[in-house]
Specification:
Layout (H helix, E strand, L loop, with lengths): L1 H26 L4 H12 L5 E4 L2 H4 L11 E3 L7 H10 L9 E5 L2 H5 L4 H10 L19 H13 L21 H17 L3 H21 L2 E6 L4 H4 L4 H17 L3 E5 L19 H17 L1 H4 L2
Parallel strand pairs: 1-2, 1-3, 3-4, 4-5
Helix pairs in contact: 4-9
Length: 306
Amino acid sequence: MKNFLKLFLIFSLPLVIICTSVEILTRRIPNVYKCKKDYLDKHSDSISILFLGNSCVLYGINPDYVNKISFNAANPGQPLFYDNGILKKYQNNWNNLDCIAIQVSYSSIFCEIDFFRKCKYNIYFGMHTSKKLAEYIEVFNSAPIVLIKRIYYYYIKGYSFTPCTDLGWCSYGDSKSSEGLVKTGKDIAWVHSKSINDKSFSENIIALKSIFEFAINKGVKLFVYTPPAYHTYNENLDSTDVNQMIAILKSFDREHSNVAYANFLYDTSFSEADYYDAVHLNEAGAKKLTCKIDSLINKCPQNIWK
């Protein structure tokens, strides 16, 4: 038995040391979650318009084009559960908050929370929403080669990881070719369609209702919108599910005086040149969408707030 323990220690100790080192080094590399948490820690009390959502907002809303003080608090794959979590985490700090602008799309209302995303909010936002130790450790949630590459490029090569602007927007770059939009439309729609289930839908509706209640209790406006997507994505979704989502959001709009809903999903003013892929806007598309939403929230309130 003693010999077995010795062998176990001999072989396992180096692995523990390596994993611990990778974990520590990874956490010190700038990432979008850490940057947004740091900004909200310092400036949440001055934000007038808060944008929440997943990568469609992360790349699709540029606060530089908003008239009031605003911040893009969206993150990759961010579910409604964590949109709600961000609101609750800073609930005593929203002193100047006038409007919450939240994206609700096919993936955010029907799909389940990705396991590997949970650790980002546990580690960098300090939300502590899980009882599983593995969901608090980076090395258990990312491929080792990915973490090692990030460590190499950041510490050895000196690459600067600047995940977003000061106001939380990330740029995807140039648009894809028309062929790329066709392929990504089909591929992303297939992934989203395979990820839906009734349990996730119920959980997402509960989170959305909690956000509605938060806005009502805070006395702030809630602007809900479905972002634009290229037709190759929309054509490959279940139209029954899409119509159900739109009907639910329209009903919230009708039932609450502080809520307005806008559906940009089929907005033909967004052309090929505005997309990076079939569901994400590029820089030009982000400017267009941001200006549209800013106009609706601030310039034409009588037309949307009842």
